[in-house]
Amino acid sequence: MQKGVCHRCLKENRFMKKEVCIVCGASYCYDCVLRAMGSMPEGRKCVTCVGFRIREARRGKLGKCSRLLKRLLTDSEVKFIMNNEMLCEVNQLPPELVFVNGETLSQDELFKLQNCKYPPKKLGPGHYWYDKISGFWGKEGQKPCQIITCQLDVGGHIKRNASNGNTNVVLNYREITKEELWMLKSAGVPCEGRPHFWMSEDGRYQEEGQKNEEGKIWDKTRTKLVCAVFSLPVPPGSKNPSGKEVNGEIRDNLAQKSIHKFLLVGYDKSGTSTIYKQAKILYGIPFSEDERQTIKFSIRRKLFGYLAILLEGREQFEEESLLEKRKSCVINRSGPSGDTIQIDDTTIYSIGVRVRAFSDWLLQVLQSDNSEAIFPAATCEYAPFIEEMWKDTAIQATYNRRNELQMLPRVATYFLDRAVEISRTDYEPSDMDILYADGITSSNSPTCMKFSFPKSTQDDSLDPAYRHDSSLRYQLIRVHPRSLGEHCKWLDMFDDTDIVLFCVALTDYDEYSVDRNGVLTNKMLASKELFESMVTHPTFENKNFLLILNKCDLLVEKIKQVPLTHCEWFRDFKPVVCSNCHNSTYPSLAQRASHYIGMKFKELFRSLTDNKLFVSPVIGLENDTVDEALRYAREIIMWDEEDLEEEPYLNNELSSIVGEASSSCFLLENDL
Ligand SMILES: Nc1nc2c(ncn2[C@@H]2O[C@H](COP(=O)(O)OP(=O)(O)OP(=O)(O)O)[C@@H](O)[C@H]2O)c(=O)[nH]1
Ligand SMILES: [Mg+2]
């Protein structure tokens, strides 16, 4: 039967949702489903399929009916049918299809497994490994996906290569995977040599041959964070035992869905940490005390750096004005009128003794190697000097000419305006300060946050089933490319990513940085190279990619100074110059440049994957654009979930519709 056709009335309507028989896969439209499926004593099966075993590929969908059925029947009817579907005997998993540590299960063993306190989630036919001592559970050849109840007497003995690890580190007979090795290292477990550890369910471990048992690895927040980033399981907490779930309780269809993962990556300084922090603020995820302290320290250190630039600028201005004075003296002496009027502004840029002493000290410290060590203590101690210095007329005069100081970044103004407040002992950074400050953690280790989207007005244009999705959880993981290794070789640790948010700084086209091999490279080309290695990475085949074109605000200014063709990849950018087109509906040069860059990435993506790249322009420092981009990412994942096996063309058809919902995305989607 052709796709999109109802198996009963044979009418074709590809946009109409259909309900599918869990045995034969036949799909029925709204008008036919009740006639074809009858009273559904075993759930959604054609009348002729009742009594037959379900198609195993559909086991994950047991108990999760479509919106169509919910529209047709009352809540309690749907609940009753779904209950039957999950609990009736013929729909149960046949034990002989489940292998644990290489051995097939008996009915008894399967019962034990399904009814223990923490049973495996989504158990279907297949080959699994189970470490009885720690409770680790996973699919054969893969990293652990869950920690289930330990000491269950099911299946055979675990094999060393059960999870296909190649780290030379053995845990309860099994060689662990590299993700687990990161986890152990994060917990401070010494993994040098070829150690064999014994680890119990509560995370206490002991190296073979050593007498002492070591503390629990699960007590460390860092370990849990690493687990979250690499999708490794943590012990089922007492607060949230999953024990009862398997016994047929129907939970909300959406709540059952596992967490959706967004992987945020971009070349150096493309703005990933800004977007990450923006997301935290947007979705109400507080910064931890640790993060706040780290950022406070970095703000203060930066402030000292900005002050130093001001001080150097002052010196320069002072010298210039002295020179100017000398010149004007010469002119005055030889002037025809004999006038002796002189404007003496040298005093404006000269500073007092105390400020000069402080200034000398600061410049010296900044140039020394151990400034890191001096700063934390020094910042508070010198707060009174900062105040005095800030009030100094010479400094203020220099600050007024800050546009001439090339070394001073734009963001400096934000912090310098509040220099006195920031250097006080009781200063605590606000969310805005954190956003404007650089970085989020002191190292470049991956960071992640779980969040859900608050309901917005835009959501009304979405499918009703997704409207109230505060129960849906998302995870944003920010990874620095440096921690992905050469050619992104560590990328496979993020194999369960739902969508990659690839961030590009639009202003990179005329900027350069030194690459791994010490060669000066155009940053846009370096960004392109990183994009290529991610897109072509074997584990990322067929992944959704959303290109985030960041720093739109800065592009507007830069494009006036430097043409886009500066970058060799953009040589054929020829915007039509239209002298009469000054009205606001006509796209600006920056908009056209950003379209064009988006299009270049789209072309590249299509040539590498045959898939469609989604694009979203963003200003990292403005919350609404970041919100829009993340919601767009959510929409893209949703289309994927709209059962693509039934309607594979949905993706393209919908993109323009949804484009309208996310206005800034629309611009690109439509034009390209
Ligand atoms: N004006 C403007 N500045 C931005 C924008 N996005 C980021 N920035 C600034 O660009 C700089 C780099 O941004 P980050 O978020 O630190 O970039 P990153 O990707 O984390 O860079 P790494 O530290 O190399 O990982 C910071 O000073 C940000 O404040 C933007 O959209 N507009
Ligand atoms: Mg950064």
Automatic annotation (TrEMBL):
Keywords: GTP-binding, Magnesium, Metal-binding, Nucleotide-binding, Transducer. SMART domains: G_alpha. GO terms for molecular function: G protein-coupled receptor binding; G-protein beta/gamma-subunit complex binding; GTP binding; GTPase activity; metal ion binding. CDD domains: G-alpha. GO terms for cellular component: cytoplasm; heterotrimeric G-protein complex. The keyword GTP-binding applies. This is Extra-large guanine nucleotide-binding protein 1. GO terms for biological process: adenylate cyclase-modulating G protein-coupled receptor signaling pathway. It comes from Quercus suber. The lineage of its organism: Eukaryota, Viridiplantae, Streptophyta, Embryophyta, Tracheophyta. InterPro entries: Gprotein_alpha_su (IPR001019), GproteinA_insert (IPR011025), P-loop_NTPase (IPR027417). Mg(2+) binds at S273, T441. GTP binds at L435, Y436, A437, D438, G439, I440, T441, N550, K551, C552, D553.
